[in-house]
Amino acid sequence: MSEGPALTMADAVWTSAERFVEMTRLVATAPEAPVGQTPKETIWRKNKARLYRYVRATPATRRTPVVLILPLINRAYILDLRPGASFVEHLLAEGHEVFLLDWGIWAPEDRNIDITALVTRYIPRAVREASSVVDAPVTVLGYCIGGALAACYAALGRDEPIANLVLFTTPIDFADAGKFGLWTAKGVFPIDGIRDAYDVVPAGLIQYGAKLLNGPLADMGTFVQLAERMQAPGFDAEAWRSMFRWVNEPTPFPAAAYHQWITEFYQDNKLVRGSLKMDGRPVRLGSITVPFLNVAATADTIAPRPTTQAIMRKVGSADRDEILVEGGHVGIVVGRTAKRDLWPRVTDWLAEHDDR
């Protein structure tokens, strides 16, 4: 009689009481994982938004500061996750002044804030404040949706103090936007009903949509992977806790901004078509002429490659470069190999485009 299949590594973890207890501890305590620990000070605020300036221990050696523009649906600490795994920390070590625009947590009174308001009234004031503090034009670096907003701002801002524009895994062309594009298509996605039902679109609703990209059993896969990784030499439990906290700590989306994002960007693809207008002004990517760097991932399900590559032929910048990294939407930016595969390449580019 067969004795059945041999236990896999994951099975071995689950049959170990001590390891099972440790696994549940990691999951249960992840919401308290220390994150965003690099010292910073608030130098400007508008409504819920805050512009932070990170504290340097020594004077900056680079002339051009970096202003980070984050997505609307995630906590801003993703780029300052934890010591040793912080893009902010890396930029500081490379000699930059670093600023970060944190959108905060939107509330029902913010229901009428749209993308146009963020691009024309929030970002310009934050960038000008950062520029005035150091008396120099800045590199604007946008991540994901923050990158789309940064691109719109740069396209409109001919008189803005922008030295360079950098985008991280930013969707620009929504003609082939993968599963998100199919799910949010006209006649399929009830965007008007969502706007009317919510003052702010619940964080959990948006988070669930992102998780569905990896299938309905994505959460189970996360725990199976954890069980396997716990057996690997050098497993970093604190790194896992901090990332798990970020993934499961999304933020709500103002109803008007969400409606504009879905209809004008995903459904009508106005940005890449050149038909997008904000405050009556055309948003044309060809108007972007500053040095430009596009960072994209090969296996990105949130911003699939067709959405990230079009900007290379749309911007007007004569000086434009692209870094294509093996991996996914978040992993290439803040994953275990980011400090080896991406961060040095970005700061090398910034060094070549520094104004000092």
Which descriptors would you attach to this protein?
356 residues; alpha/beta; Rossmann fold; eight-stranded mixed beta sheet
Write a brief structural summary:
By secondary structure, the chain is α/β, with parallel strands linked by helices.
Describe this entry's structure for a reader.
- This protein is an alpha/beta fold and 356 residues long.
- It has a domain at 37-185 and 268-352: 3-Layer(aba) Sandwich (Rossmann fold).
- The protein has 17 helices and 12 strands.
- It has helices at residues 9-14, 17-29, 87-93, 115-134, 145-156, 178-183, 191-197, 203-212, 218-229, 237-247, 255-267, 270-273, 305-309, 311-314, 331-334, 338-341, 343-352, and strands at residues 40-46, 49-54, 66-69, 98-102, 138-143, 162-168, 200-201, 253-254, 277-278, 281-282, 292-297, 320-325.
- The strands form 3 sheets. Strands 1-2-4-3-5-6-11-12 form an 8-stranded mixed beta sheet, sandwiched between helices. Strands 7-8 form a two-stranded antiparallel ribbon.
- Helix 4 (115-134) crosses helix 5 (145-156) and helix 7 packs antiparallel against helix 11 (255-267).
- The chain is globular, with a radius of gyration of 21 Å.
- Residues 1-5 and 9-14 have low confidence and may be disordered.
